[in-house]
Amino acid sequence: MVPGATAGGGGESSADGQPFDELQLMEAEEGVRMHLGQLKKDEATVQEARKALEKEKSMYVRELRRVQHEDRSRFSRRPVMNGRYLLLSLLGRGGFSEVWKAFDLREYCEVRCLRGGGREREEGGG
């Protein structure tokens, strides 16, 4: 039933008691369709925003974990290794080793240092 119509016996009527004509019914239906279309667009926008926020949340959680691992590392004071490599930030860890972003004080460039597990090595790049 269309809003404002009565559920009486004969035909449908408007709020003022006058019967709806076909044009008014078509206008009301079109209004409902337009409103429904807008609601669907709004829902799609909300879903896109939700996905973006979930992705951002995931990135923040990942960074928080990385910082926690960095703080718990035995190299958290960021020492200069071998008198050459200044540790800057933890890139990742796994097993018995950690990969740190470091600065080579001799070559003046960023490098990656693999620390732990008994073997330590340095890789250029960055």
Structure explained in plain terms:
The chain is of the alpha+beta class. The protein folds into 2 domains: 19-72; 77-123, 2-Layer Sandwich (Phosphorylase Kinase, domain 1), CATH 3.30.200.20. Helices cover 40% and strands 25% of the residues. The protein is built from 1 helix and 5 strands; from the N terminus they run H-E-E-E-E-E. It has a 5-stranded antiparallel β-sheet. Strand 4 (109-116) and strand 5 (121-123) form a beta hairpin. It is rod-shaped.
Name some characteristics of this structure.
126 residues, 1 helix, alpha+beta, Phosphorylase Kinase, domain 1, 2 domains, 5-stranded antiparallel β-sheet, 40% helix
Count of DSSP-assigned helices: 1
Ends distance: 68 Å
Strand order of the largest sheet: 1-2-3-4-5
Largest sheet: 5 strands, antiparallel
Helical content class: 40-55%
DSSP strand count: 5
| Number of spatially distinct domains | 2
What percentage of amino acids are in beta strands? 15-25%
List the helices and strands and how they pair.
Blueprint: H1 22-72, E1 80-81, E2 85-94, E3 97-104, E4 109-116, E5 121-123
Antiparallel strand pairs: 1-2, 2-3, 3-4, 4-5
Question: In summary, what is this structure?
Answer:
The protein is an alpha+beta fold. Helix content is 40%, strand content 25%.
